[in-house]
From TrEMBL:
Protein name in the entry: MFS transporter
Keyword Cytoplasm found: no
Alphabetical UniProt keywords: Membrane, Transmembrane, Transmembrane helix
Major facilitator superfamily (MFS) profile domain segment(s): 8-406
Family matches, as InterPro entries: MFS, MFS_dom, MFS_trans_sf
Length: 413
């Protein structure tokens, strides 16, 4: 029998797989057919998608604050309704303007229904013990592109891009909505939201809770001054850099590998290793790195891309697969760190709003990455790898500027 936590992870991870696959990963397959049918350039479709990411960034803090106040169950369930509406608008779009509106509606849904909201919901339910659950849902949802890209391509071939959008809209209502409603029971979520951290943790420890002997009075909290604004700035910079690099690589990796001397077929084959490498990195986090501080995990993960870039610059084409594996593994662990590191430093109180704030610069960087990186490739070619490696090292320096005591201090909350 699965425990309640395992059921939550399976349900929420499946819902996240659907959410990512039918929104964030949709343009890679449907942008071309969508543009041809509506008589516009694919650039306009991707521009509308970038607008959706901007909307997601602007509304993310508000969605996070609502999760802090009322729990994640309602916000995640509402996101399925918004996703379904946006996808239906795309499928029915008679002209480009309606298509743009459809993407902006999806941006509203992304502010409510992607990782940040799922992480906040888990922090509500499990407090500081949420790290394993966060890793679990990223393990499942890390396969979103692997699963949903072929499905979208098959649907487009069989019933057209409009039909594919309608099918994904129906999946949000028939699959995603029930999963989000059932995975976080209302009572458990509200109790976790209302209770202090110590109460939540005590409920998970045998021999505590109602009916147990009264515990000894907790020691008075030690007064201390926490540099929260500085830590928030450092984390915001780290997340913006890493999302910029990962999004740029997702958009341009095959082209970069070919420019490094890799054949087109080999470049696509090597790029396809990024997804499995991300999952492998998350398995490593789940099985080994979870024993250590999330700050250590994040520092190691930021080295993945700079080492990959150094190898490709030094060795060229023979290192193409190594580049994909190192970059993918680091990126996979960083996805988890974006949820676990703020939780470890600041604690679960106000976690949802804090995640929304931290995501704002990251979403803007993500929206700009494909265009900015394309300009850099035009100007300096494969020299762009030195730029991306430098950005990765800058993220590492920011993480090194966060003292290990920040995690200890957070545990005292």
């Amino acid at each position: 029998m699965l425990s309640q936590r395992h059921r939550v992870v399976l349900a929420l991870g499946s819902a996240q797989t659907l959410a990512w696959g039918s929104t964030f990963y949709l343009p890679a397959i449907l942008a071309g057919p969508m543009a041809r049918d509506l008589g516009v350039s694919t650039g306009l479709v991707f521009g509308a998608f970038s607008g959706a990411l901007v909307i997601s960034a602007l509304l993310g803090p508000r969605a996070g604050r609502r999760i802090d106040r009322f729990g994640g169950r309602g916000v995640l369930a509402a996101s399925n309704l918004v996703f379904a509406a946006g996808l239906a608008l795309l499928g029915a779009a008679p002209q480009p303007a309606v298509m743009v509106v459809g993407w902006l509606v999806l941006g509203i849904g992304m502010s409510m229904g992607l990782y940040e909201s799922a992480f906040a919901a888990l922090a509500q339910a499990y407090g500081r013990k949420a790290r394993g659950a966060i890793t679990g849902i990223t393990l499942l949802a890390g396969l979103a592109s692997t699963i949903c890209w072929p499905v979208s391509a098959w649907l487009e071939a069989e019933i057209g891009w409009r039909g594919a959008c309608f099918v994904w809209a129906a999946m949000q209502l028939v699959v995603g909505l029930p999963l989000n409603l059932l995975c976080l029971p209302r009572g458990a979520t509200e109790a976790a939201a209302a209770a202090p951290d110590a109460t939540v943790l005590a409920a998970a420890v045998p021999g505590t809770g109602p009916g147990a002997p009264a515990p000894a009075p907790a020691p008075a909290p030690v007064a201390r001054s926490e540099p929260h604004p500085r830590l928030m700035l450092l984390l915001g910079f780290v997340f913006a850099i890493t999302w910029f690099v990962s999004t740029a690589m997702a958009a341009h990796l095959p082209q970069l590998l070919q420019a490094s001397g890799v054949t087109p077929v080999a470049a696509i084959a090597a790029a396809a290793l990024v997804g499995p490498a991300q999952v492998a990195g998350r398995v490593l986090e789940f099985g080994v790195l979870q024993r250590f501080s999330p700050l250590l995990s994040a520092r190691l993960a930021t080295l993945g891309h700079p080492l990959a870039a150094l190898g490709l610059i030094s060795l060229g084409a023979p290192f193409a697969a190594g580049f994909a594996l190192l970059h993918g593994a680091g990126n996979g662990i960083l996805t988890i760190a974006k949820g676990t590191l703020p939780l470890a430093i600041f604690g679960p109180s106000g976690y949802g709003h804090r995640q929304g704030v931290l995501t704002v610069p990251a979403r803007f960087a993500q929206a700009a990455a494909p265009f900015v990186f394309a300009l850099l490739i035009e100007r300096i070619g494969t020299g762009v790898l030195a730029v991306s490696a430098g950005l990765g090292l800058a993220a590492l320096l920011c993480l090194l500027a966060i003292p290990a005591s920040a995690i200890t201090a957070g545990d005292e909350d």
